[in-house]
Design brief:
This protein is an all-alpha fold. It has helices at 3-36, 44-64, 71-93, 101-123. The radius of gyration is 15 Å and the shape is globular. It starts with a helix and ends with a helix.
Amino acid sequence: MGENIKNNINYIGKGIIISLVLTFIMLLILSAILTYTQISESIETSAIIVINAISILIGSSISTIKEKNKGIIKGMLVGTLYIGSIYLISSLVTLNFSLNASSIIIIATSALAGAIGGIIGVNVKK
């Protein structure tokens, strides 16, 4: 395998792991907020979409910060592979897992956040 391909896989993997860790931390915070405050649980779906988008944005930015080009493609890869990982884990944990309108919105938001994060990462001055 070429050195460039290995580097790309490493950077994308790093972005996915960063995104997953950030998501886990932010979901723990959201859970605590919903448990110990009077905030309505009706914000849950919107909050999860925002948490996913922020996690992917940061993860894809960090993963493309040392890159010089193709940030949008690499960022979208981080976003789609991240959300694919989340859905794979969800389908293993939850027996009644299914795709619905919210899932489609989250997938689209993930790809978009990854693309934007990739663009930001490539254009950050080193």
